[in-house]
Amino acid sequence: MTTTWTPGALAERSAALDDADPLAPLRERFLLPEGFVYLDGNSLGALPAAVPPVVADVVHRQWGADLIRSWNDNAWWQAPERVGDAVGRLIGAAPGQTLAGDSTSVQLFNALTAAARSRPGRPLLLTDPANFPTDQYITDSVARLLGLEVRRVPVAELPLFLAREGERVAVAGYSPVDYRTGELYDLAVTTRAVRRAGALMLWDLSHAAGAMPIEVDELGVDFAVGCGYKYLSGGPGAPAYLYVARRHQEGFDQPLTGWNGHADPFALSGGYTPAEGVGRGRIGTPPVLSLLTLEAALSVFDGVDLALVRAKSLSLTGFLLECADTLLSGLGFTVVTPREPARRGSQAVLRHPEAHALAAALTERGVVGDVRAPDLLRFGVNALYVSHRDILAAVCHLREATELGEYRQQRFRRRATVT
Ligand SMILES: Cc1ncc(COP(=O)(O)O)c(C=O)c1O
């Protein structure tokens, strides 16, 4: 059963929730345009205020003045491990198990191939039919390369599948949050089931890291990867991360054996000997500007309790659903995101046949969400900078844009390249 509130009560409630919000001061750690409601931090996080001065220093002093000496003097060489450990702190990884660099797609390819190679005799790779496309495409490609088969098994059907065919499964690669619907799956239950079958658990944490506490070490996760540009706010195309549990590092046989992952890269020898530890996950020369940008961005989490971030995120998405129940009723919307807090990630999703045009109309009104084809309007909340007043304003604009039929206007019906 859902509670419905009158519009006036919603305004009062949003103000009360914001006034009592212990995380409200964190919004100042971001440079957000005035009067803008930004609900797309699950795609591209907002700009942290700590970033521009660091980028200016990296460009002008470290690159411009110190030039190549910066690899040593400004510790550029150690950036993948150092920034990796900073991400590791957000996902419950003890130091020395997380690396930053390359894209999520590349990290997935490396991790999945290495994981599958370490389970010879097991012919199956599992992925979710609802997984993000890159995860599915790379799983298919790794299977072709290694002569394995892919089974697309929804999370809900995993226990049954593992009971039947678990002994044949090499790796299960899943995302804890459905990027379209926002549904959150139980990391602990899934990890346990996969490992009990003797298979390896690989999580794509892109839509979870930075939005909720995650404990990869404690849960016994084998491998994890994720984007640096969503809730971590590392900027467009920010480096991704790779987590390799310590127990797997010695046997981590990655396919992309670039010279940075060599035990002694500057010996420049003709044969590959992998480095000790997670450093063997390195590939080629790291994207230093982007790594140091991500490092500066991660300072937004300094002193922040992720349990509070999760609690506020649930309050924001829950409030959005309440606002939708009250303000959007009869306007053709359906709530897609699970209402049960334990099953909700950090986004609220509504279905509407005019989702594309409505998102465009909202953008013109200063409310940014996004759309996933064919008809899902996604509103991602980053609890570090989104308020309950933002949520109410977004839903009020959505109601007005729908009631006024703005979505019929030609300029909102053109599809942009990136949605
Ligand atoms: C779950 C998930 N994995 C991976 C990616 C993207 O990977 P890449 O950074 O390689 O583009 C996304 C992008 O939205 C995603 O949602």
Structural summary, described in words:
The protein has 419 residues and is an alpha/beta fold. The chain has 15 helices and 13 strands. It folds into two domains: 7-31 and 305-413, Aspartate Aminotransferase, domain 1 (Alpha-Beta Complex); 52-301, 3-Layer(aba) Sandwich (Aspartate Aminotransferase, domain 2). The chain is 38% helix and 12% strand. A seven-stranded mixed β-sheet has the order 2-8-7-6-5-3-4, with helices on both faces. The chain has a four-stranded antiparallel β-sheet with strand order 9-10-13-12. It is globular and about 70 Å long. The two termini are 33 Å apart. 50% of the residues are buried. The mean pLDDT is 96. The structure holds pyridoxal-5'-phosphate. Pyridoxal-5'-phosphate (PLP) binds at residues 103-105, 132, 134-135, 175, 179, 204, 206-207, 227, 240. Pyridoxal-5'-phosphate binds next to helix 5 and helix 6.
